[in-house]
C-alpha cells in the first residue's frame, strides 16, 4: 500500500514540471506557433535557476531568473518564426540544440554541487492529516499546489476572456483575425515568450527542487514528453494537466520500483516513460487523427499579412 | 507624413546572394560564438587561434578532423536522405548508438568468425540495427501519419538506456571498475588505417556513401519518385506512387546510414562499446543537413566544417573554454543561416503612406 502511495506522491511531484512545460507549449501552439525548443528552454531554465539559487541563496530569485532565461530563448524563436517567418520545425530543433549547448557551457563546474536553498514542502493543516491520501496530496511545495490553478487559469483565459478569443483566433484563422483588428503578430510574440517562461520554470523545478543538482542534459527528453502531452491532451489545458500527472506517475513508478529492489535493470526501468509515451501517442493518434480534435488550424504556418 | 514598413516576398533571389548567405551565416556564427566566449571572460581571438591550431593548422589536428568528420558526414547524410521523402529523422543519435551496440554484440558473440568476415558482419549488423530503429518511427508515420520527429527522438533515449543496460550489465568489463565500458573487442574487429596516417578508413566509406546516396536520389528514377513523394505528395498520389512504402524504405535507409556511423566509430575509434560513443553526432547531423540545405554533397562540406569546430574545441578546453562551445557555435550558425534565408525570401520595403484624407481636403469637406 505504501508503495502505491509513495509512487503517487512522487508522480505528482514529477508531473508538475511536465505540466508547466506542456501548458507553456499549449499557449504557444494555441496561438499558432509550434516551438520544438522546449527541451532547450527547460535546460536553460534548469542551469540558470540552479546557478542563481546557489549565488543568492534564494530560490525565488532562482526561479525568476529561470523564467527569464526560458523567455529569452523563446523570444529568439518568436523573432525568427513570427517576425522573419522562418520554418518553425527547423528553428525549434536548432533552439533545442542551442539550449543544450549553452546550458552545458554555462553549467560547466557546477555539476555535483547543491543549490544551497530550495522550496520546502508545506503541509496543509487538517487536509494533510487525512489518512492515506492526506500526505500524498497535501504535503507538497507551492508549485505543486499552484499547478491546477494555473491550468484552470489558462482554460479561463482561453475560453472566457477576449484575449483568449484573440489568441485562439490567431492560431485558427490568423487572416480573418487580422482583418477584424486582432493584433496577430503581437499575440503570437506574447504567447511564444510566455511559453518559454513556463519551460524555464519547469527546468528550474528539476534542478532546484527535485534533484537539487545540475547535470548536463538533465531533463533527458522531458521537454519532448511535454510536446507529446499537448498532442494527446488535445490542446486542452485541463486534459494536458491530467496527462502530465499520469506521466509523472509512470516516471515515478520507475524510481519506486528501483527502490524496492525489483530484479530488473535500472536502465530498462528508466525506459518506461519513453515507451509509455510512444504507446499512448500511437493509440491517441489513431483515434484523434481524423477528427484533428483541438489542433489549431494554422499551427506551424507562419502568418504573412501580404499573402492573405 | 507616415511611413509603413513591410516585408515583401521576393520572387527570385540573385544567385550571388544564395551563395553569400551560408558563408555569411558561418561568419556570423563564429562572431556570435566569440561574443559568448568573451562574455565568459575568454579572449575570442586567442580561442579561435587554438581552434585553428588544434584542427586544420597542424598535421595531427587535420588527421583528428578527418576522423571526427566521418560520423558527422554520415549522420548529416542520414538527415538529408530522410528529407528527400519529406521526413525529419531526429533519431540519428539513437540509430548510431544501436548500430554500435549491434556491432558490439556481433563482435563479442561471433568473435570466432575469421577476421575478414568479422568486420563486415559487424558493420552490416550495425546498419541493420539502425534501419530497424528508424523503421519503428517510419511505420506509424507511414500508416497513421504520426509525427516522426517525436518518435525518432524518443527512440534516442531508449537506445542510450539499452546501451547502458548492456555495458553496465551483461557486456560490462569486469576490469573497468564500474566505468561504463563493454569488454574490449577482438583485434580482428579493428578498422584498418589509411597508409601513413592514424586515420581509419571510415572517412573513405563515408564519402562513398555520400556519392552513392546522391546518385541514388538524384540520378535514378526511384530517387526521383522519392523526391516527388516528399516534395509534392498530391502529385505522387495522382501518379499512383505508394508514398507510405517509400517513406518506410527511405527512413530505414537513413537509419542504416546512421547505424553505419555507429559501427565505424566502434571499430575505428573506441574498440569497445562505451558511454559517450556518440558526442551528439546525431544532433549535429541535423544542423549539418540544415547548413547543407539538404543537399547530399553539401553535407560533406558542412560536416568537415563542424568537425573542425569540434576537434578545435577539444584543443580549446586546455585554455579553459568549455567544450560545448562547439555546439553553441554550430547552432548559432544555423540561426544566422535561417535569418539570412529570410532576408533572401523577403525584402524590407519602406513606403511613405498618404493619409486617406489630406488635411486640406478634410477641412474643405
Folded structure, characterized:
The complex is a heterodimer of chains A (308) and B (365). Chain A has 308 residues and is an all-alpha fold. Chain A has one domain: Orthogonal Bundle (ABC transporter involved in vitamin B12 uptake, BtuC), CATH 1.10.3470. In chain A, strands 1-2 form a two-stranded antiparallel ribbon. In chain A, α1 packs across α10, α2 packs across α9 and α2 packs across α10. The radius of gyration of chain A is 19 Å and the shape is globular. The model of chain A has no long low-confidence stretch (mean pLDDT 92). The two termini of chain B are 21 Å apart. Chain B is mainly α and 365 residues long. Chain B has 14 helices and 2 strands. The relative contact order of chain B is 0.21. The C terminus of chain B is likely disordered. Chain B is globular. Chain B has a two-stranded antiparallel ribbon with strand order 1-2. Helix content of chain B is 70%, strand content 4%. In chain B, α2 crosses α12. The chains are: A mainly alpha (308), B mainly alpha (365). The interface between A and B is large, with 46 and 49 residues.
Per-chain topology:
The complex is a heterodimer of chains A (308) and B (365).
Chain A (H helix, E strand, L loop, with lengths): L1 H29 L7 H19 L2 H25 L4 H20 L14 E2 L9 H5 L1 E2 L1 H19 L1 H11 L1 H6 L4 H27 L11 H11 L4 H23 L6 H5 L1 H17 L20
Antiparallel strand pairs in A: 1-2
Chain B lengths: L1 E8 L5 H25 L4 H11 L4 H26 L7 H18 L5 H30 L3 H21 L33 H18 L1 H11 L1 H6 L4 H28 L10 H11 L4 H22 L7 H21 E8 L5 H6 L1
Antiparallel strand pairs in B: 1-2
Helix pairs in contact in B: 1-2, 1-13, 2-12, 3-7, 3-10, 3-11, 3-12, 4-5, 4-6, 4-10, 4-11, 5-6, 5-10, 7-8, 7-12, 11-12, 11-13, 12-13
